[in-house]
Design goal:
about 150 residues; Alpha-Beta Plaits; 4 strands
Length: about 150
């Protein structure tokens, strides 16, 4: 099983969308390995968004990400990174298709309600950035065989 990270941004927190967004992943039959609420520091944002540090919107991104605490979540499932990215939609929420999280709830790039790991490699790095090993749990849901075909997991 593959793991991926999502961050529910302050725009999701302020709008009361946490439960609604998380339930979409649960209904897709991804399952939690870790979940917590944290306040993001400058240090962690500088590390997490290092690839954007030279962009003109970097400081406004950091301010937006520190407006409230965020919810960080590790989901697990078959092809979890790709599945979650498809569910989130394009980063620029104005271009995201209806039915995706950003398409349904966002209208801009910075306040697009959710961050999702973009590759298996980045998911591993990001999960380690936001979770200590003891904060992640692995278990086999009792009904998993009803959601995956024989030999898929």
């Amino acid at each position: 099983m593959e793991k991926t990270l999502i961050i529910l941004k302050p725009s999701a927190i302020e709008r009361g969308l946490v439960g609604e967004i998380l339930s979409r992943f649960e209904r897709k039959r991804l399952f939690f390995s870790g979940l917590k609420m944290i306040q993001l520091s400058d240090a962690i944002l500088n590390e997490h968004y290092a690839h954007l540090k030279d962009k003109p919107f970097f400081e406004s991104l950091k301010l937006a990400m520190q407006a409230t605490p965020v919810v960080v979540c590790c989901f697990e499932g078959k092809d979890a990174v790709r599945v979650v990215r498809n569910m989130c939609g394009e980063t620029n929420a104005r271009n995201a298709k209806p039915g995706t999280i950003r398409g349904d709830y966002g209208m801009c790039v910075v306040r697009n309600v959710i961050h999702a790991s973009d590759s298996i490699e980045n998911a591993k790095v990001e999960i380690n950035r936001f979770f200590k090993p003891e904060e992640l749990l692995t278990y086999r849901p009792s009904n998993i065989d009803f959601f995956y075909g024989t030999g898929e997991i």
